[in-house]
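Appendix B. Chain record.
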Amino acid sequence: MTVSCSSSLIANFKLDDDFDSETRDLFVMVDNPEKHTSTLESYITFRINTKTTREEFDTHEYCVRRRYNDFVWLRQRLEDGYPTHLVPPLPAKHSLRRLDRFSSEFLRVRQQALQKFLTRIADHPVLSFDKHFHVFLTAKAWEFNAHKKKGQGLISRVTNSLHNISASYMMKNRPPEFAAMHDYVQSFGDKLASVDRITQRILREQSGK
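Structure tokens predicted for this chain:
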């Protein structure tokens, strides 16, 4: 299958946005980047707002703050737990080297990429029900840090670091054709997730009759 053919398939495979939004029961919004400075480092956190009607959540709305490393942790947990699923990618930690990582332009681009990452997980029929994703969206800072430390020994931390370095290298050096095909697979997966949500909604409505 050629890249142009893949693009054509994506263009032809569309769903009504309004109808699709009615099937969603989990909405996540990334915004409000904020700089934090301590004696050891300076870093940025993003506000994560969540609205849901799912029964496994204690309330319908949550608001937490997470930094980039927290997103990396979440993606690693999903990759470890679901090796047969395509986990959405994250932007490289320093992909925009020409920009100051605290500049408004850098933060705008990063916020958009993190939003896309969480939206794809929230729309996924399997990944969105993962316990680590649930904690990521709902836990207070101290609870989240305690959860992350569970099972994170030295070997695990070294493995994660090597994985992140390798992933960053591959993202920078892969041919354009592979990048286009990767985007196609991601988009096609999003559409399949939408179809699954619609199917589940129809089944629920039929079972309620």
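Further analysis of this model is presented in Appendix C.
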